[in-house]
Design a protein that fits this description.
5 helices; 71% helix; elongated; mainly alpha
Amino acid sequence: MIKKIIFGIFFIAFLSGCAQNAALLGPIYAFTSTGNIYQAGISYGSNKAITSFTGKSTGENIKEIIIIKKDDSEFEKLVKRQVKKTRKKLNLIK
């Protein structure tokens, strides 16, 4: 337990100044909390694959999906409005 905490703190401190390596923080946390290196590797690999394929981070892709467009169907507009309402209720967006 103590080794995992020290390992996690070391890597967070080591990588906190590197903006390009910020994608490593999630997998490092997953590895230190669960000890499952496969889960951490898949998380990092999927983030890199999405970024290289789309040119945007996963967060940017999600923001783009939620925006209501003119050519959306009524169902898509309804779902996107409900997502925004839910996020407001959860205080995830202002």
